[in-house]
Specification:
- Helices cover about 30% and strands about 25% of the residues.
- By secondary structure, the chain is an alpha/beta fold.
- The chain folds into 2 domains: about 400 residues, ANL, N-terminal domain (Rossmann fold); about 100 residues, GMP Synthetase, Chain A, domain 3 (2-Layer Sandwich).
- The strands form 6 sheets. It has a 7-stranded mixed beta sheet with strand order 7-6-4-5-8-9-19, with helices on both faces. A 5-stranded antiparallel beta sheet has the order 1-17-18-20-21, with no helix packed on it.
- Strand 10, helix 8 and strand 11 form a beta-alpha-beta unit.
- Helix 2 packs across helix 3 and helix 2 crosses helix 6.
- The radius of gyration is 23 Å and the shape is globular.
Length: about 525
Amino acid sequence: MMATGGSAHWLPDTGVELPAESVGALLRRQARDFGARTAVHYLPDEASDEVAGLTYTELLALAEGCARWLGGRCAVGDRVAVWSRNELATVILQYGCALSGTIIVHLNTAWSDAEVEHALRLTQPALLFAGVDNRGGALEARLAALAQAPVHSLAALKELARAAATDTPLPDIDQSAPFLIQFTSGTTGRAKGATLSHRAALLGGWLRPYCEGATCADVWLNAVPFHHIGGSVAVMLGALGVGAAFVVLRGFDREQLIRLMPVVGATRMGGVPTMWHDMLAAPDLPADARLSSVSLGGASVPAELARGIFERLGARCGIGYGQSEFPIITASLPDDPVEVVCATVGRPLPHVEMKIIDAETGAILGLDEPGEICVRGPLCMDGYWDNADATAETIDADGFLHTGDIGTLDAQGYCRVRGRLRDVIIRGGENIYPAEIEGVLAAHPDVAMAAVIGVAHPRLGQEVAAVIVARPGADISGDALEAYVADAVARFKVPRHWRFVEAMPMTASGKIRKVELEEAFAAP
């Protein structure tokens, strides 16, 4: 495939046949074809690295039991929310939702109470499940207080599934039915729920492994949270798509990952570059820890990182680009050289159409000209849940999703992401929108004006910084404002660098010149 006629417009490669089932139907097919093969590895004891597993037959039985239990309490299309770190029970619940026709809603364990309350108001879940957060703190009572509704213990889900009546019929679910509400922040600072159909989610997990040559013999060892598209779709549904296995990890623990690599026979790992900077900094990687593939996303890949992954683990390092609204857009392929992996985000995957446009006029630009990246295809979200205005702003009348990212496309279809139309900080793979934090700071009685920017960080990529104009006579400090912001947003969003100024640099139209603020932070 080539870009068309010298313009930055990549027509979709439709020669690849796509799975036509719902997520639940694909699980049934894999259980039929690979019933005795391990589908999930997990660690039953939090204090031990002892690994247990479920075969595809066992996973299907639990998922169907969960679906029947849900079906007795929910209608098709109802939302089911879960608030927990990664657990085996979350996997069972996600597949139970798929088979029952309910919509899974993963809540971020790092969210503040206000962020959780917003998600609950937006999605109105019929059922709530809670486990523990990444520090081991119980979330059930906290969620019940926020929701003003009963909350089920995630730890009890397996027993609920096993005890469910076996004669309750399950509905036939079409591939176009909604499957997942994936939260993503917006420029307004309020989280939006990208609604993914079974088709979009399933293909979002299946396409990249298919193109990379993954097989049923692979074992994914990834610590990506299930409340991220990388966990719920890329890992969980990616392994399902090829009949492979993945390991349920409660969080990123470098030493545990290294210990588990030879134990589970890991062949594929992923994550964001920050995780891999930490992995390669480990003094001891086992000699038998040899991988076939490391799939990265969320930030650019430095050349030394890609080469380090190959030299120490024997793995091909690949890069991918996607969004919650369109789970995978581009990816590098196995035969791409390291220079391509480090300089681009790969090429559009099959069935993905891409164009680079002038954001003001909508005109398609020429090759290698920077403009807004727009994409169309079966992986696109249906829209933002209960937010028609935001949906109309993001998906145009021709069905193209406007990513808000600035990029270029060359004649071979390689895409380079240059920047963002939207004001975004990427800290360790997490998207942080300054407008949200600026809104919190603006509510402080001693703050006259606030600007939040990203500053370079050697491991995280970027760190959050804030520039403050205090009200006359106010006596405030960065420590006090840090504590204030921490009460309103997730901790990874809290500014760690503070600067107090008499006045902000402003444009003629009255906007803060953030470029000058970034330059001031970068100055020695």
